[in-house]
Amino acid sequence: MPSQTFTIGELAREFDLTTRAIRFYEDMGLLTPERAGQQRVYTARDRARLTLTLRAKRLGLKLTEAKDILDMYDSPRDTAAQLQRFLGVLGSHRAQLEAQLAELEANLAEVRAQEKQARAALARAVKPKAR
Asked: At what angle do helices 8-15 and 19-27 cross, to 10 degrees?
């Protein structure tokens, strides 16, 4: 049974990407299409790697981190070591996101406090004067 192949345009439409973005992922080493003359021919492996790359982006991972993880599964390594590396990347990323979340929560608390002060000042400013 012949393996399924895809053109760059087909992948771009399927994943709602530009062909330029797909070529960028290729330049980063995330995709390795074959060539038929000047045309890129993407395999099911490339399609799967693109799916996983976009999932990693949604998680907020750097493309280099995504590539490291994807490349682990291409090499004949121990599954436990691969999972430990993956957990390490995810743990590091989670810690970074939690730090950003804490900073955002502190900023929101400050904004809320400023809003409260501004509302109180406004209420005092528009309060009718007693005669």
From this structure: 110
The CATH fold of domain 1-61: Multidrug-efflux Transporter Regulator; Chain: A; Domain 2 (1.10.1660)
Residue 41 main-chain phi, psi, to 5 deg: -125, 110
DSSP string, 50-99: HHHHHHHHHHT--HHHHHHHHHHHHS---HHHHHHHHHHHHHHHHHHHHH
Q: Which of 26-30, 35-39, 57-61 has the highest mean pLDDT?
A: 26-30
Question: Could you tell me the sign of the dihedral formed by the alpha carbons of 34, 72, 70, 74, in that order?
Answer: positive
Taking the model in full, what pTM does it have?
0.68
